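ok so for the tutorial part 2 we go from a plain amino acid sequence to predicted structure tokens. step 1 is just haveing the sequence, like this:
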Amino acid sequence: MKTATSEPRWFKSSYSGGSGTECVECAYASHGALIRDAKYADGPVVPVGAEAWVEFIDALHSRALG
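step 2 — the prediction. this is what the tokens look like for a chain of 66 residues:
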């Protein structure tokens, strides 16, 4: 989890494209998650609330198993 004194620990999404041009990185935060474009690590970061993040991940899993 992100704290006031630590940097987010980013990881590549397993749903990112394999070509290296469509990579999304995520990091867990105290309020939910952070999302950014891996090609622009210093660019914008999209914060996502915990409830929305869980619903998003659940939707991905249900489609993958679907």
